[in-house]
Amino acid sequence: MRSGKAYWEQGGWWIAPDETPNLSHIETMYGKVSGVPVEYEIPDKRKARPKQRRLFFALLSDIHRWSGEPAEWLKEYFYLQYTIKTAGKEISLANDTVSTVSDATELINLVIDFIFDYQVPINDGYPLLPRDEAYFQFKCIQHRCCLICGRAADINHIDEVGMGRNRNKLDHTQARLSALCRVHHTEWHQIGNQAFCKKYRLTNLGVKVNAETLKRIGMKGNYRGGN
Fold first, then answer.
1. Potential cystine with 185: which of 24, 62, 119, 180 (Cβ 3.0-4.6 Å)?
2. Which sequence spans correspond to the domains of the chain?
3. In the predicted structure, residue 3 carries a pLDDT above the cut 90
């Protein structure tokens, strides 16, 4: 992968490659064009955090109680899944790790996927789960699990829908949504979004969800003219 530098200028981000692109090679692939698609990655210089390590091993403890598999085996299993997903990258959450916050987040997301997909009951890890992260909120919506307590949930609109509107005719992909059980949904309405986020230590509440996921969980709406 070639490298370069990103900088802000005239209201937008620009990328300056360290090496001059081979224009002949680009024209061979794309023909004469004014622009070509590129992929870039901004390196994360933050070292994986102790809190991420605690969360990872707390979740492994919950999976161990559910499955009976040794925690060390589970650790190596998810490390391997991370290596497969990242096409060969290795990861470690040891104290002297060189893995980054982004690396650890990717690993934890794999564990969260596993927990939701297999409906693993969690206890040790639940207080540490990143409820304010978009990915976890999305998984709660996808599986209709309460973001706060894990019980069966309704899908809550964070953005006002308006009185009298038929929700079956709305495009719900344009609204921020969250999964809250009846108890926490009622509490959210009673104390308001700001107080609710402060109480449960959320930096934000609600994410936008694609039409495919909303249809899969049975949320009717008018998605680009469809049902």
1. 180
2. 1-42, 50-127, 131-216
3. no
